[in-house]
Automatic annotation (TrEMBL):
<comment type="similarity">
    <text>Belongs to the band 7/mec-2 family.</text>
</comment>
<feature type="compositionally biased region" description="Low complexity">
    <location>
        <begin position="379"/>
        <end position="395"/>
    </location>
</feature>
<keyword id="KW-0812">Transmembrane</keyword>
<dbReference type="InterPro" id="IPR001972">
    <property type="entry name" value="Stomatin_HflK_fam"/>
</dbReference>
<feature type="compositionally biased region" description="Basic and acidic residues">
    <location>
        <begin position="327"/>
        <end position="339"/>
    </location>
</feature>
<dbReference type="InterPro" id="IPR036013">
    <property type="entry name" value="Band_7/SPFH_dom_sf"/>
</dbReference>
<dbReference type="InterPro" id="IPR050710">
    <property type="entry name" value="Band7/mec-2_domain"/>
</dbReference>
<dbReference type="Pfam" id="PF01145">
    <property type="entry name" value="Band_7"/>
</dbReference>
<dbReference type="InterPro" id="IPR018080">
    <property type="entry name" value="Band_7/stomatin-like_CS"/>
</dbReference>
<dbReference type="InterPro" id="IPR001107">
    <property type="entry name" value="Band_7"/>
</dbReference>
<feature type="region of interest" description="Disordered">
    <location>
        <begin position="320"/>
        <end position="404"/>
    </location>
</feature>
<dbReference type="GO" id="GO:0005886">
    <property type="term" value="C:plasma membrane"/>
</dbReference>
<feature type="compositionally biased region" description="Low complexity">
    <location>
        <begin position="348"/>
        <end position="357"/>
    </location>
</feature>
<keyword id="KW-0472">Membrane</keyword>
<keyword id="KW-1133">Transmembrane helix</keyword>
<protein>
    <submittedName>
        <fullName>Uncharacterized protein</fullName>
    </submittedName>
</protein>
<dbReference type="GO" id="GO:0098552">
    <property type="term" value="C:side of membrane"/>
</dbReference>
Length: 404
């Protein structure tokens, strides 16, 4: 018994010491009561208490807390029920008020947030509720901060975590959104098709303009070529007719000179006439022919008119004397050049120039530039002698009889 009493005293003292020393961690606060009455609030560190007189009423977490409340059914202005989840972020600034000012501050925050949420959402339609989250969050934070200030709480943030409309309304909204997306897709498709049609029409317009310009230039070139060809053909026909007439005149001159140089007599003419009569009779078109009965008288009158009467009383035709020019005309000419088929160098040059012009690329003319003055279309470059490039006679120039 002598040893037990000191041991009991030692244990009692140790228990008293442990009960009088309290360790408060950082981020917590302890509300101290003395004989049931609030005395002070202590934060992180070592705190000494009076045994059996002071006690720790409650430890309060002074850090910011994030509390998520379960979904709450709220009726909107258009009488639709939606479930809204809220998240509240708060911090206890005055632990004594949080303990003595309200029985349960978490329940108080939840109830005030639900009542404020129903008041705010009740004045909005469903579409406004879905699109006005920021407005609802701001009003909820203001109402909660004002209501919980006397509890020692500071509401730092309020967020709507989810807004769930009824399944039927959600399905209708999905259908509406799908219809809106399809409408926008159809509008965009129509806009794209319209733009495509406009671009295609512009391209076809430009293509038709360029095609018309090409056809225009082609028609101009074709008309110019046809005009040049007609001018050249006309020049050739004119030259051919002129040369043909000159040839016929030359032939008549040759025949006349040959007759004069040969000394033809009336007897020879009569003989030639009688010699050709059988050939006239052999013609298929001649069914009947007649010999003039006064042929001899005609020949006699011809002889008297052009012949001289001799001493024996017979009229004899004597050819007239032929001058040197007539004899020279009656002589044979060199006809080797008539059958020369070689190309005239000047004609070959003109054809080469025409081919170069035909093969030249034609560009669309600039409408802002004035065309440069050119020579008259269809005119051929003249040679120094006054003849055309093709060697055709011009204006008053007469061809050389020797080359006719």
């Amino acid at each position: 018994m002598g040893l037990a009493l000191p041991l009991i005293i030692i244990v009692f003292v140790v228990v008293i010491l442990f009960s009088s020393i309290k360790m408060i961690p950082q981020g917590e606060a302890a509300v101290i009561e003395r004989l049931g009455r609030y005395t002070r609030t202590v934060t992180g560190g070592v705190t000494l208490l009076i045994p059996f007189i002071d006690r720790v009423r409650q430890r309060i977490d002074t850090r910011e807390r994030v509390v998520s409340f379960p979904p709450q059914a709220v009726i909107t202005q258009d009488n639709l029920t939606v479930a809204i989840d809220t998240v509240v972020t708060f911090q206890i600034n005055d632990p004594a008020r949080a303990i003595y000012g309200v029985d349960n501050y978490l329940v108080g925050v939840e109830q005030i947030s639900v009542a404020t949420l129903r008041d705010v959402v009740g004045g909005m339609t469903l579409e406004e509720t879905l699109t006005s989250r920021e407005t609802i969050n701001r009003r909820l934070r203001g109402e909660l901060d004002a209501a919980t200030a006397k509890w020692g709480l500071r509401i730092s943030r309020v967020e709507l975590k989810a807004i769930d409309p009824p399944p039927s309304i959600q399905q209708s909204m999905e259908m509406q959104m799908k219809a809106d997306r399809e409408k926008r897709a159809m509008i965009l498709t129509a806009e794209g098709k319209r733009e495509s049609d406009i671009k295609t029409a512009e391209g076809e317009k430009q293509a038709r303009i360029l095609s018309a310009e090409g056809e225009k230039h082609a028609a101009i070139l074709a008309a110019e070529a046809e005009r040049q060809a007609m001018i050249l053909r006309a020049e050739g026909d004119r030259a051919a007719k002129y040369l043909s007439a000159q040839g016929e005149a030359r032939a008549l001159q040759k025949v006349n000179a040959a007759i004069k140089s040969s000394g033809v007599t009336p007897e020879l003419l009569a003989y030639q006439y009688l010699d050709k009569l059988p050939q006239i009779a052999q013609s298929e078109a001649a069914t009947m022919w007649m010999i003039p009965s006064q042929l001899g008288d005609s020949l006699e009158e011809f002889a008297k008119a052009f012949a001289n009467k001799g001493d024996d009383g017979v009229f004899r035709y004597e050819s007239q004397s032929v001058d040197e020019d007539t004899k020279e005309m009656a002589e044979a000419e060199n006809t080797d050049k008539w059958f020369d088929t070689s190309t005239d160098p000047e004609l070959a040059k003109a054809l080469a120039e025409a081919r170069a012009v035909a093969n030249k690329h034609v560009d669309a003319p600039d409408p802002t530039q004035k065309p440069a003055p050119t020579e008259r279309s269809g005119e051929l470059p003249s040679s120094p002698g006054g003849s055309s490039t093709l060697g055709l006679p011009t204006g008053n120039q007469q061809p050389d009889p020797e080359n006719a």
